[in-house]
Known about the structure:
By secondary structure, the chain is α/β, with parallel strands linked by helices. The protein is built from 10 helices and 7 strands. It has a single domain (3-157, 198-231), classed as Vaccinia Virus protein VP39 (Rossmann fold). The protein has a 7-stranded mixed sheet, with helices on both faces.
Amino acid sequence: MNSSASEIRDLFDRIAPVYDQLNNGLSLGMHRIWKRMTVKWSEAHPGDTCLDVCCGSGDLAQLLAREVGRTGKVYGVDFSAAQLAIAQQRAKTQPFPLSINWVEADALNLPFEDNYFNAATMGYGLRNVTDIPQCLRELYRVLKPGAKAAILDFHRPTQEWVLAFQQWYLDTIVVPRATAFGLTAEYAYIAPSLERFPTGQQQVELARNAGFTSTVHYRIAAGMMGVLVLTKALK
């Protein structure tokens, strides 16, 4: 793992205790709806074996586990040990058991066999990996032919008034809230990460280059959010 990836891992270890609270604020409380949409687009079914990459505190992995049921299996993968510890603890508090294996691993080098998963999700992770093309290639490798991946993340909107609102919200709401937790520098990285993040159409092209033949990017929340849906072709 290079130094940049190590720095990102350390950042997510530090913000892990307040990650859910700040995510709720950053998304105006809408992240729960967006995550349900993402799981729906992944087309996970009862009995499936599914993957949630960059699982963080485990929201998407839990939603996937509910879809696959007792006969299925979900693997929640993250390189932040602190995030995984919280995800595991949160899963234990659910009213019924969830079939989730928590795995500490790098999204750029997934510890799974080729053609293994029926579906995959990723929430707020693609923007933070150090090599987006390699991450997409790994997703392609571990998915079964015909399987889908749904990738949710924040985006820079193209409309000027929406862009102005997003920047105002980051500057006046999100970063000050992070400051209250002593995490100013950790959350100040969001704006530059959005500026570097490929647009929806650029993500579509990167996914095609990784091998996906069916790629669609859905703009939501006036372009401040997006879900990239990828399908691995049947052989």
